[in-house]
Hints:
The chain is of the alpha+beta class. The protein has helices spanning about 10-15, 50-65, 100-110, 110-115, 120-125; strands at about 25-30, 70-75, 90-100, 125-135. The chain has one domain: Alpha-Beta Plaits (2-Layer Sandwich), CATH 3.30.70. Helix 2 runs antiparallel to helix 5.
Amino acid sequence: MKTREIHLDALDAAERSLPPNRPIYMLNLLRYRDEALYDDRPGERPCTGREAWRERYVPAFRRLAAGLPVQRVFFGSVLAKIVGPDGAQWHDAALNEYADFATFRSVVDSDAYRREAAPHRHAALDDFRLFALVKAM
């Protein structure tokens, strides 16, 4: 099943299950569209999904998160699947650290995010997964 949305109920459930006031790591698995699909923004210059992600989504996200305790830990290409179901192919993976889940949520649950960043995520991605992680104690 392909997914591109971050749903409010998933954010609520994560917030209830994650320890407050502890750093979290958000693991993103990304599969891009060959060509970005801007249904609701016909004026966008054509580009690949990867270009829409890297050149439009990431800068928009960084603007919205400016001044917040957010740091990129890793971003790179997925070169080989060792274990996983058929069809589970990813182009890139990203790992970002946030001071806590509230910091992450303050960005992705904002009107500015929905207006300035989310349209690029939707256009760029064919499929994606997002996992909230905490370090084992």
